Amino acid sequence: LYFVGRSDEIIKSRGEKVAPREVENVLMEIPGVREAAVVGVPDDLLGQAVKAFVVMEQGTIMGEKQLRMECQKRLENFMIPKSIQIVSSLPMTDTGKLKKMALS
């Protein structure tokens, strides 16, 4: 089995490889989520921790705890974001692509 993709897009957490796109797709399936971005952040215990940035639809009242509970239903334990930050928007380039390097 081979994984084809950019190696810099893989998060290694708890000795497991996590594809951010897979976690983002699960977050996007949650009603009320408009946008989601997932990055790896340094963690002394885990190596890298999975961190999510989520933009909610206007009028949606859902916090980090509820989002994590939804992720627990759909993802393996090592893939669940350690933290979820709700933001008003995600940083984009002039061409409309996500600036993941600006997230931390």
Strand order of the largest sheet: 3-4-5
Q: Helix- and strand-based class?
A: alpha+beta
DSSP, total strands = 5
CATH fold name, please? GMP Synthetase, Chain A, domain 3
- What do we call the CATH homologous superfamily? ANL, C-terminal domain
Low-confidence stretches: none
Q: Based on Cα principal axes, name the global outline.
A: globular
Count of alpha and pi helical runs: 2
Q: Which value, in Å, is the CA radius of gyration? A: 14 Å
CATH class: Alpha Beta
Please give the CATH architecture.
2-Layer Sandwich
Oligomer: single chain
Main beta-sheet annotation: 3 strands, mixed
**Helix content class:** 10-25%
Average pLDDT for all residues: 91
Question: In what range is the share of β-strand residues?
Answer: 25-35%
User: Any idea how many domains?
Assistant: 1
Spatial separation of the terminal alpha carbons:
31 Å
Order of helices and strands: EEHEEHE
Task: Explain this structure.
This protein has 104 residues and is an alpha+beta fold. It has a single domain, classed as GMP Synthetase, Chain A, domain 3, CATH 3.30.300. It has two helices and five strands; from the N terminus they run ββαββαβ. The strands form two sheets. It has a three-stranded mixed beta sheet, covered by helices on one side. The longest helix is centred in the middle third of the chain and has 11 residues, at 64-74. The model has no long low-confidence stretch (mean pLDDT 91).
